[in-house]
TrEMBL record:
Chain coiled-coil ranges: none
Annotated SMART domains: HTH_CRP
UniProt keyword list: DNA-binding, Transcription, Transcription regulation
Biological classification of the source: Bacteria, Bacillati, Bacillota, Clostridia, Eubacteriales
GO MF annotation terms: DNA binding; DNA-binding transcription factor activity
GO cellular component, one term: cytosol
InterPro entries: cNMP-bd_dom, cNMP-bd_dom_sf, Cro/C1-type_HTH, Env_Response_Regulators, HTH_CRP, RmlC-like_jellyroll, WH_DNA-bd_sf
Keyword Acetylation: no
Name of the molecule in the record: Transcriptional regulatory protein
Source organism (scientific name): Clostridium aceticum
SUPFAM superfamilies according to UniProt: cAMP-binding domain-like, Winged helix' DNA-binding domain
Length: 227
């Protein structure tokens, strides 16, 4: 795959908006970048693997996960097309991935080497500013997600999820576009713990649920996520 095919997309992404397609075509060479395909569910980076590039998702979705010694999976967040990853690690003294990064769908990533990123920062002040914005935004997302997970009870996490989906879907019947296993990973809890809490909430008349949806019966749970 050649970078030329993706130039229209790149010029719409924050850090590269200050460059024209012609300028980018001259800047990119075989030595400073690589474009790679990843099949769904394939590992992109292992936890504790050294970060040596800044990556842009040219196509698909990737998921950031923390896997503990017991094999439990905590899904931190998902990034999609045009998102930039690795910028907050590349220039660290301890530049290793603290979490595992996996392809959620078939994906294509652009991997850019450190020297090339430095060259772009020197050539364009706008690139530098947008690159720093991207670093800060990703750090905020991950820090905020970790903070919200570690400080909330299981019920609060479920309620927070339902509150978000209620406002997004504009419906008391929340359609689930994921399995219970994936939902448990997203909430940072074990699947049996999720099932037990959902059963308790059903017994208390708060919800009704099946494999494909959760029906909110008591609107008070939409407020409990702030507790």
């Amino acid at each position: 795959m050649k970078i030329k095919s993706f130039l229209p997309l790149l010029t719409c992404i924050g850090p590269f908006k200050s460059f024209t397609e012609e300028e980018l075509l001259k800047l990119f060479c075989e030595e400073n970048h690589q474009i790679k395909k990843y099949e769904k569910n394939s590992m992109i980076y292992l936890q504790n693997e050294v970060c040596s590039t800044v990556d842009i998702i040219l196509r698909g979705e990737i998921v950031i996960q923390k896997i503990d010694t017991n094999g439990n999976i905590l899904t931190l967040t998902t990034f999609g097309t045009s998102d930039v990853i690795g910028g907050n690690l590349l220039f660290c003294h301890n530049n290793v991935y603290p979490m595992t990064i996996t392809a959620k769908t078939d994906s294509i990533l652009l991997h850019m080497k450190k020297d090339f990123i430095l060259e772009l920062c020197q050539k364009s002040k706008e690139f530098l500013i947008e690159f720093l914005h991207s670093i800060c935004d990703k750090t905020f997302i991950l820090t905020n997600k970790l903070s919200s997970i570690t400080m909330k009870t299981i019920r609060q996490r479920i309620s927070e999820f339902l509150t978000y989906e209620y406002h997004y879907q504009q419906n008391y019947r929340i359609k689930l576009n994921m399995s219970k296993k994936e939902l448990a990973e997203r909430l940072g809890i074990q699947r049996p713990s999720l099932s037990r809490e959902l059963s308790k909430m059903r017994e208390e008349g708060l919800i009704i649920y099946d494999a494909k949806s959760i029906m909110i019966k008591d609107l008070s749970i939409l407020q409990s996520s702030d507790a």
